[in-house]
Structures are given as C-alpha cells and as structure tokens.
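Hi,

I'm pasting everything inline rather than attaching a file, because the server keeps stripping attachments. The sequence lines come first, and each chain or strand is labelled.
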Amino acid sequence: MYFRFGSALVLVVLISLAGIALEKRNLELRRSVTRQRFRRDVLHDAHIRMRLETQRLGAPAQTIDALESGELRVEPQRKPIVENDRR
Amino acid sequence: MNGSVNRATDWRVLTIIVLLAMFALAIGARLVQLQWIDRLAFSDRANRQRTFVESIAARPGDIVDRSGRLMATTISVRSLYAVPAHIVDITQFARDVAPRLNLDADRLAERLTLNRTKQFLWIKRRLTEQQAIDIRALEMPAESWGFRREFLRRYPQGRLAAHILGLRGIDGEGRGGVEQKLDGVLRGRDGERVLVRDARGRVIDVKTEADRPAEHGRTVVLSLDAVIQLYTERELDRVMEEWRPSSACAIVIDPATCDVLAMASRPAFDPNNPVDVLPAAWKNTAIASMYEPGSTFKPFIVAWAVDREIISRDETFNCERGAYRMGRRILHDHHPYGQLSVTDILVKSSNIGMAKIGERMTNRSLYEAAVTFGFGRRTGTELPGELTGVVRKLSKWNRYSTGSIPMGQELAVTPLQLITAHAALANGGKLLSPRLVLGDMEAMDEFGRRSSPTASAQVVTQTVGAETAAWIVAGPMRGVVQRGTGKKAQLPGFEVFGKSGTAQKHDPATGGYSSNRFVCSFVCGAPADNPRALVLVLVDEPTVGTSHYGGTVAAPAASRILEKTLLHLRVPSDASQPRTANRR
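And the predicted assembly:
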C-alpha cells in the first residue's frame, strides 16, 4: 500500500514538475519574442533615422549647386515610383 | 434540582446550536451571493483591477515625391512627464529640469504646484536626444518622472513644398496640405495591447491573444518632383527679393497628364519649425487666392471663338488706333493699333481687338467659354482650402461684361485654375483635373510599384478641338514670346509659347481699378509643338520699380523655371536633336 501511495505521489510530483518546466519554457519563449519585437522596433527606428539623415544630406537643396556646376554626375530622370499613368 | 440543571444546560446547548446554524446559514448565503448571484460583476471587477489596455500608436506614413525622395517621415522620440504627487521637493525638481529643457524654472514650479495631487503632467513633449540624455543623467527618483515614446514628424527637404505638405500638430493630426487631406491614409490606426499587473501595479504578463497590432500609415506618393520644386522656389525667392510683392506663387504642370510637378507660394513657412510664422505665410496662394486673370485669359476666348467658327483664324479686326467707345466707356490699348489679325490681337494683347471678338461672341458664348475651361468651380486637386473662383451668373452680365470678360476682367480665378485651363490648350483641348497625388503604398517599407485608390480620379472635358488648341499654342501664343509681350521668356534652343497678364487690382478707395497696384502673371511652356512642361508665375502687387507688367515681372522667372525644368526632364533642345525623336 505504501508503495502504491508513494508511486502515486511521485507521479503527481513528476507531472507537476513537467508542467512547471513547460510553463517556464513558455514564459522564456514569450520573453524572447518580446525582446525580438523590441529589438526590431529599435532597429526600425534606427533605420528611419538613418534614412531621414541620408535624405536630408542628399536633398536637392544640398546637391543642386554641385549638380549644376558638374561636380556631381547627373542621374537620368526615372519614371514615377508608382505606375498610375493618365496618358 | 438535578432535573432543573439539565434543562438549563439543554437550553444553552440548543441556543448555541441554533446560533451556529444561523451563522453557517449566513455564511452559506453570502457564498451563494458571491459565487453565484454577483459572480459576473465581481469577476469583471477583478479583471479590471488586474488588466489594463495600452494603446499602440500607429506610425504616420511617409510622403515621397514622384522619384521616391522623402518629403515627410516620422521618427520616434521621448516626451517627459512628471508625477507631481510623488515629487518631494518641487522647487528643486523644477530647478534641475528646466534649464536642461530650455524652460523657465519658476513657471515650471508653478505648474507643478498647481497640479500637486496629479499622477501625470507633461513637462515637455518631443525632446531631442541630448535633452533626454541630460534628464536621465539627473538620476531623479524613478516614481516622480518618466519618458513616453511619441512620434515626431520631420521634413528632410526643409521648407520645400511646405504648403503642399502641410504639417502635423502636437497630437499628430494633419493640418493643411496633403497631411490634412489624406490624414486617414497617412495616420493609420492605433493598436491595443492587454497587460496583466500585480497588486502593486507592476506588469506581470502580456495577453498576446488579445493584442491588436497598430496599422501604420501608408506612404503617399506625390506628383511633385523635388528638383523642379526647388528650382521653382528659388526663382520665387528671387522674385520676392527683386520686386518685393505682397505675395507670389508659381506652378509647373506636365500638360499631358496635368501632374503638378511643382507648386510654391510666398511667403512660406518651415514645417520643421512652425513658430513665429506670419499669418499670410499659411496661405497657399496657388489655390486659396483669387485674381482677375487679365490678358492670360484671352487665349481661351480666341480659341473658343475660332473653334465655334464665330471668327476665323485669318480674319482681321480694326483696333481703332487705341481708343474704342463701347457703350458708356472708352476702351484703350497700351499702344495704338490699326488692323490686327486674330493672331496679332493676342500677340499685342489688344483689349480693343478682344472686345470686338467679345461683341461677335455675345455674352452667352463668353460665359460658355469661361465655364467650359473650368473657371468658377474647383479643379478637384487633393489640397484642402481650394477656392472656386468667381464667374457670375449669366443673368448678371451686361454690355460692360461683353468688353470686360474677353480681356480677363469681371471674373476671378485661382492660379491653379488658370494653369489647368492653359494645360488644356497645350494638351489638344482636353481639360484634366490637376493631380498632386499619384497613389499610396501598402506599407512604409514596401516600395513595390502599385497604384491605389488614393490617386485622384481623372476628369476629362474636351474644351476646344485639338487642331484649334494646337494652333493657339503654336501660333498666337508662340508669337507672344517671339515678338509680343513675352519676349523675356525666350529660351535659346526651345520654341517657347506663352501669354502675359497684367491685371489692375480693385481700389477700395475709389471703387474702381487701381492705377498702381497690379497682379503680374506669365504662363509659358515648351516645346510649342509637343509641350512637355507648362509654368505659371503670378506676382501680386510688386512694389519695386515702375514697370509692373507680366512680361517684365513674371516672364523672366517663368522662363528660368521652364528652362531648368526642360533640362531636368531631358527634353532635347532644337539644336541638340530633331524634335521628332522626342514626340510622345
């Protein structure tokens, strides 16, 4: 009887431990996902800031004199970036 | 004796049992109330105490020009708030924080004291990176302050196209320009995140299953070309400096599509720093001001009269040597002319010749011409605040109108209406609604080629026949630049066509036309046989010098803008290439 009682107790404890382990793993993964989202947001912000800076530095107002004087090579006119032609 | 003692004991036991039973019943009843009757209410209350919903702000979309150059974008910055209820020494707090944020310490302390019991008070929104670092370095108690992430709109091209773009207010709402008109597309939709917190208010879990992600704003593509816009604005600045007018504007249009390549007004403002702006600077003169068009209106009347065969192209009119009585008034020309052909009436800009054409047309036909070319109604551009202009009802026109309308008086137009109508002449007579927005993109980081419903609908009206339109452009309007009032718009290597306008302004003192306040305008385009660009420059009340004519004030600037635009669009000049290679 003691053996059966002990076995049942061990089984219950093992199941509980497995549940706790799974829960911890679940929380760990969720933390990891949250961290990755945060990193993605930080990188996205950094990307936007760098894009803003490059666009500001390369704005026509900054480069037009160099273009007109021939210091910079003139890129050919591109088509609009969206296809929505009325012709 | 023994029996009486037993009875008394029984009675006491019974009383205790009854009391205990009543207590148990009360407990049971309370349990039933809590667990069954009020279960939902208590469950809701517990949920409310345990969870709260946090808003996830949507990032407003970018605005780019037709080549993808960034005109407006959004960055994430920190805003500082305080918890006045948890600040121990308000004066010290204000003394520490204020100098690092360029605030007045006394006023900040006063604000904090007034809101002493509050749990939240903005100190300064949208800090610079350095300001945020400085505040963090103060190492103030964590419970008394905090940062919140907010979005800040930036315009990397500076003042360029400020009136077209508009700006975003402190709470992110679009104000003016495309920012206002397309706020629904640009703003996106905020999301929600459900957080679970413990008894002390600390977040212990995020209910990801209840998350609603933010839908960020879309990227809007404008028809503007930032390079042409820059050329245009530089020329306008030069005009403002040279002639010191009250305002000026310029528009560049591709006549084939009616895409607005540039639109600028002066005075202007800096959308990155919209403080100390003159009230007049908020106004986009190109769409929100009305003027009598003057002589720039004459080509529409001639085109209509020729197209409806009211006059013929080779007809001549007697211009009465500069003075012509029409009813009770006498019309004058700047120079006395005798017989002038229809072409020369436009080239010399003869008011008498136009009045005689008006007499031939009658008021009904003049009215039809004005309305068909789009005057008196909005063009349908995507910008807010566009005026309709003024074309009075035909029933209110009189004999005076017959002489005034053909020379561009008695009606008011916006600069955008005027260039849109001229674009119709340069486009085979087809009047299109001007377009400023080419479309929007699905997401700010997906630069796929995709059109969208944001693009404005195309409205086409055939005003005059293609042959008549081509003749007006390549004949009389070309002549204006070759040998008429627009000689200053000539460009070597290009066949430029154009028309000048010099309209007298209304003088409130006399009730008539002023003799020293003018609106000078010039519209020109090239090449004449296949127009690739059309430019309008309008200068309101130049004050420097005395020669205030469209051909002297506005034509040189319009010509320079046109020249730079043609170069930028790689339109070959006559000398460099046979034009047939460039025909579309």
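Chain A has a mean pLDDT of 86.

If the labels don't parse on your end, tell me and I'll reformat.
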